[in-house]
């Protein structure tokens, strides 16, 4: 057998940065691949690609923007969902379908009565204790190998370590103001949160989600982190639909990694962190309440004690969980193993 084709570059196709909510997932993959020294191209159907060498590329794309993607036999494709007719001429063995654990188990697969068999890829562990549910899976659906995973934070372990250092030294707490900064799309849950803040006299500031690449509202990863560190509260609210289908948002990983206590209404998000004890008899995991107003009250109560050693230990514990298990470097490690097992004609080297 010939040796596997070694991937030499990442090509992101579609949703350029700030043009769509999914562009931030693309950007997180871009940052992680560049961390490992991979060249990255970010293109879409409007670009002139006539002189680009696409040989031995890993294409990262999404089903709504993949229709004019270059289709080659010497490339591997990672697509967030696939529609009938996508990637003409490319064998299914060259295509990995990216799905979200928990959400797609219920929303995309099991509800359709397919009887999909999920094979666990890894379980996040802290010391000798497992916590939460298994994180990542493989399944074969409609002839495609599917990678079920979670999103993650968009910063790296050394940056989280620096935020932990600032937490312990008190520098992080000194950045906090009495305002709330929200970076993202103002869906109904966030409108309600803004109303709660204002009813309590807490100034609420909205950034980002312009979905225009030239907007002055856009914020970089570093600016986002600075705003969250300044924010009095940084919850990860979700719609009832997302909670019902057990979706775990990237926001909770980001906010924790930036140095803010996680806040959620979702039982599955709470469970992901709940089995980790900072110390015997200590506080458990992140803040949880199914009611928006109660959750805000719990967040304010935590912030009143945020400078105490106990509160710092609790936050450090969940920051370490994200650092060790929920960065995009973790996801690339799983992807490398996934390719080796389920797309053995190719190889990724990190």
Can you offer a commentary on this structure?
It is globular, with a radius of gyration of 21 Å. The protein folds into two domains: 5-152 and 327-343, Rossmann fold (3-Layer(aba) Sandwich), CATH 3.40.50; 157-325, 3-Layer(aba) Sandwich (Rossmann fold). The longest helix is centred in the C-terminal third of the chain and has 17 residues, at 309-325. It has twelve helices and 16 strands. With 350 residues, it is an alpha/beta fold.
Helicity, as a percent range: 25-40%
How many domains comprise the coordinates?
Answer: 2
Instruction: Write down the oligomeric state.
Output: single chain
Which term fits the overall shape?
globular
CATH class of the largest domain: Alpha Beta
Q: Into which percentage range does the β-strand content fall?
A: 15-25%
Summarize this entry quickly:
The chain is of the alpha/beta class and 350 residues long. It contains twelve helices and 16 strands. The chain has two domains: 5-152 and 327-343, Rossmann fold (3-Layer(aba) Sandwich), CATH 3.40.50; 157-325, Rossmann fold, CATH 3.40.50.
Task: Supply database-style keywords.
single chain, 350 residues, Rossmann fold, eight-stranded mixed beta sheet, 12 helices
Strand-helix topology:
Elements: E1 5-6, E2 9-13, H1 23-35, E3 40-43, E4 57-62, E5 76-80, E6 95-100, H2 103-109, E7 119-122, E8 125-126, E9 129-130, E10 136-141, E11 144-149, H3 157-169, H4 171-175, E12 180-183, H5 188-199, E13 204-207, H6 221-230, H7 240-244, H8 250-258, E14 263-264, H9 267-274, E15 287-288, H10 292-304, H11 309-325, H12 328-342, E16 346-347
């Amino acid at each position: 057998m010939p040796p596997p084709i070694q991937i030499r570059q990442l090509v992101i196709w579609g949703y350029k940065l700030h043009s769509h909510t999914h562009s931030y997932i693309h950007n997180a993959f871009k940052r992680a691949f560049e961390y490992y020294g991979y060249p990255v191209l970010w293109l879409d159907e409007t670009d002139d690609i006539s002189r680009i060498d696409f040989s031995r590329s890993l294409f990262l794309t999404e089903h709504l923007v993949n229709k004019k993607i270059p289709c080659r036999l010497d490339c591997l494709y990672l697509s967030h969902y696939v529609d009938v007719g996508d990637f003409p001429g490319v064998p299914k063995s060259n295509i990995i379908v990216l799905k979200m654990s928990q959400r797609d188990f219920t929303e995309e697969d099991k509800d359709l009565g397919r009887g999909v068999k999920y094979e666990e890829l890894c379980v996040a562990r802290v010391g000798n204790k497992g916590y939460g549910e298994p994180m990542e899976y493989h399944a074969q659906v409609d002839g495609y190998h599917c990678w079920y995973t979670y999103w993650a934070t968009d910063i790296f372990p050394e940056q989280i370590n620096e935020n932990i250092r600032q937490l312990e030294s008190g520098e992080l707490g000194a950045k906090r103001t009495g305002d709330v900064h929200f970076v993202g799309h103002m869906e109904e849950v966030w409108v309600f949160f803004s109303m709660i803040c204002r009813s309590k006299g807490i100034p609420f500031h909205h950034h980002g989600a312009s979905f225009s690449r030239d907007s002055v509202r856009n914020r970089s990863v570093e600016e986002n982190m600075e705003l969250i560190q300044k924010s009095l509260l940084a919850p990860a609210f979700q719609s009832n639909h997302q909670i019902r289908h057990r979706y775990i948002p990237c926001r909770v990983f980001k906010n924790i990694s930036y140095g803010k206590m996680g806040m959620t209404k979702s039982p599955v998000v709470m469970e992901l962190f709940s089995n980790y004890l900072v110390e015997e008899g200590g506080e458990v995991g992140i803040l949880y309440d199914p009611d928006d107003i109660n959750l805000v009250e719990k967040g304010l109560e935590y912030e009143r004690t945020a400078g105490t050693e106990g509160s710092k230990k609790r936050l450090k514990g969940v920051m370490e969980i994200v650092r060790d298990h929920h960065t995009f470097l973790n996801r690339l490690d799983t992807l490398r193993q996934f390719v080796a097992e389920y797309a053995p004609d190719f190889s990724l080297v990190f």
